[in-house]
Amino acid sequence: MLKKTCKCGTIISYEKQHCNKCLAEIEKKRKEHQKKYDQEIRYKRDKKYHVFYKSDEWKRVKTLALVRDKGLCQWCLKEGRVRSADVVHHIQEIKKMWEKRLSLDNLVSLCHECHNRHHNKR
User: Fold this and answer.
1) Strand 3-5 relative to strand 107-110: parallel, antiparallel, unpaired?
2) pLDDT tens, 21-77?
3) Residue 90, H or E segment
4) 3-class SS at 107?
5) Do residues 66 and 109 lie in contact, with contact meaning Cβ atoms separated by under 8 Å?
6) What is the radius of gyration, based on Cα positions, of the chain?
7) Are the C-beta atoms of residues 111 and 76 closer than 8 Å to each other?
């Protein structure tokens, strides 16, 4: 079995991205960030969208998109880089095209860097 090193130096299986200790820390930071994000008034999500992103139907379609894209950032691949996808992005925003929220054709798997770069351009 192939092995690699986690960012902390722990040897892990090649299929994994992080060791269990780092995964726990990443999840803790993600939850803290999400809580802060939800509490900030300027970033308050409309309840409709918040409920949608917590729904089983979104989780199912998100998983299908990640499987279709082999868990890789599609925009990085176009630039010759191989990077894991962290986000499934709606090509046409659901605020403008609600009916396409579950369409695989409207979804693309991206890394956080590409996703943030796209949203910071607007």
Assistant:
1) unpaired
2) 999 999 999 888 877 766 664 455 678 888 899 999 999 999 999 999 999 999 999
3) strand 87-90
4) strand
5) yes
6) 16
7) yes
> What would the two tokens of residue 5 be?
């090193």
Give the separation between CA 22 and CA 7, rounded to whole angstroms: 8
Domain ranges of the chain: 1-44, 56-122
List the one residue out of 54, 69, 65, 72 whose CA is nearest residue 114. 72
Give the number of residues written for the chain. Answer: 122
CB atoms within 10 A of CB 73: 25
SS3 71: coil
Q: Which amino acid is at 46?
A: D
3-state SS, residue 24: helix
pTM of the model: 0.63
Pairing of strands 87-90, 107-110: antiparallel
| CA–CA separation, 57 and 69 (whole Å) | 18
Cα–Cα distance between 34 and 51 in angstroms, integer?
14
